[in-house]
Amino acid sequence: MRDIKLVEVRSEIAAGTRGASMGIDALKVASLDKMSDFFTRFDPIHVQDANNYLWKGNKHPHAKYIDGVYQVLKNVYSTIESLRLESLFPIVLAGDHATAAGTIMGIKAAHPNKRLGIIWIDAHADLHTPFTTPSGNMHGMPLAMCIQTDNIESQVNEPMEETLQYWEKIKNIGGNFPKVNPEDIVFISVRDTEEPEDFLMQKYGMKNFSTADVRKLGVEKVAKNALKLLQDCDQIYISFDVDSLDSSISVGTGTPVPNGLTVEEALNLNTELIKDKRVCCWEIVEVNPTLDTENTMAEHAFDILEATTKSLVDNF
């Protein structure tokens, strides 16, 4: 069995809706309801969040709570870097998706000479910047942080100078260089994007396998094709946002979108992808039990978490 380390990041500072910090505990409740011993098998690491900034009020309209986001990203980055230096496999349970940038930065810092590929299973491309964001919510920005783009070509906002100082500091966590090549990002089920994100996806030729592609080609073929696109990468990180699930299922998440994956499709997709020996980290984010009844979202998410972990263990 690979040395798996559970990493718990109870951050919700970058989400637009409150409650994602409770997602990890909702997964644990789901495991009890399903009488699973999953959480007794792994010794979790708790990463310090910066949710206390929410009480201070937001001073940055185009990058909400960016001062706090910077703090939590640094914490995630240093945790993931040290785990990867020890050749441990982080399974990250996180609240808002912004912290994925810290995960990516940590993976890259541990092995700077290894080319990193990303599979992003999400309803959103998360390629916004303070210059382009319509909401200011920073869970829509992690991939832009990691490819070090401002996307000035698509500028719609005039962020404050202090906001931009923090934005530069965030992009430079782990070194002043892109942590991933844009063409080494593969999207699955992305279906809710704005023009600035579409611009970047077209500019860099980023591939998105739509939900229709998953239905037409089948899960195994999509997984195979996604991994083939990353054939030149030495290591792969998979980030699974539960809003990739269809909005009929994903009630308990901040930004549900129609025409998403079924639970079975998402489960089979993740269990298939994680079989690739280059995968070095897997992450699940954005469960928000305050938006749910009966903890349904967390129960579905837990099934995916448990099955994906089992696939990882069985294939090594």
Can you give me a brief rundown of this structure?
This protein is 38% helix and 13% strand. The chain has 316 residues and is an alpha/beta fold. It has one domain (4-314): Arginase, Chain A.
Explain the overall architecture.
The chain has 316 residues and is α/β, with parallel strands linked by helices. The chain has a single domain, classed as Arginase, Chain A (3-Layer(aba) Sandwich), CATH 3.40.800.10. The protein is 38% helix and 13% strand. It contains eleven helices and eight strands. The protein has helices at 23-33, 38-41, 66-85, 100-110, 142-147, 161-171, 195-204, 211-217, 219-229, 263-273, 296-314, and strands at 4-9, 45-47, 89-94, 116-121, 185-188, 207-209, 235-241, 279-285. Strands 2-1-3-8-7-4-5-6 form an eight-stranded parallel beta sheet, sandwiched between helices. β7, α10 (263-273) and β8 form a beta-alpha-beta unit. α10 (263-273) packs parallel to α11 (296-314). The radius of gyration is 18 Å and the shape is globular.
